[in-house]
Backbone:
């Protein structure tokens, strides 16, 4: 028959209140119950190792405050997914955010340009021209300036 002695189980209880089924060491406790800090320590190391195994640590993203920055980042993410450096799940989680960011940038760019135009139109230099009033339109810069000048008289 088998002569292997039955392992002595740890005397401590698990967090769930059940008897610990790990093999005991000399003190009557298992390795983890004898060294309560070891478990979380090993867990941390394991976690770090696992993350490292999935992918190399990624470079931080640049500031995505211009359309060009978003475009560059999307190109980089595509490269990273293709090279296996970035999990496709992360990339597909980022995709809608990037397109949202791009839309927000386009909106605010457009808003700024409209505001600039509105300010320009409201400036006294131009106002006369659009009100059809006080200041005559200056045709000086047009190639046919002579034609306009004479035909008016
Ligand atoms: Zn134990």
Residues:
């Amino acid at each position: 028959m088998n002569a292997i002695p039955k392992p002595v189980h740890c005397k401590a209880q698990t967090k769930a209140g059940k008897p610990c089924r790990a093999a005991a060491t000399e003190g009557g406790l298992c390795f983890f119950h004898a060294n309560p800090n070891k478990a979380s320590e090993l867990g941390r190391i394991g976690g770090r190792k696992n993350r490292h195994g999935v992918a190399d640590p990624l470079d931080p993203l640049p500031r995505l405050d211009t359309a060009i920055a978003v475009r560059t980042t999307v190109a980089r993410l595509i490269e990273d997914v293709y090279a296996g450096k970035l999990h496709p799940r992360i990339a597909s989680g980022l995709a809608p955010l990037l397109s949202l960011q791009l839309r927000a940038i386009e909106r605010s760019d457009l808003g700024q340009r409209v505001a600039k135009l509105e300010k320009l139109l409201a400036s006294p230099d131009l106002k006369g021209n659009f009100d059809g009033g006080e200041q005559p339109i200056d045709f000086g810069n047009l190639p046919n300036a002579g034609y306009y000048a004479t035909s008016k008289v």
Summary: The pocket of zinc ion is lined by residues 10, 12, 20, 22, 29-30, 32-33 (CB under 6 Å). The radius of gyration is 36 Å. The first helix runs from residue 31 to 34. Confidence is low (pLDDT under 50) at residues 51-55.
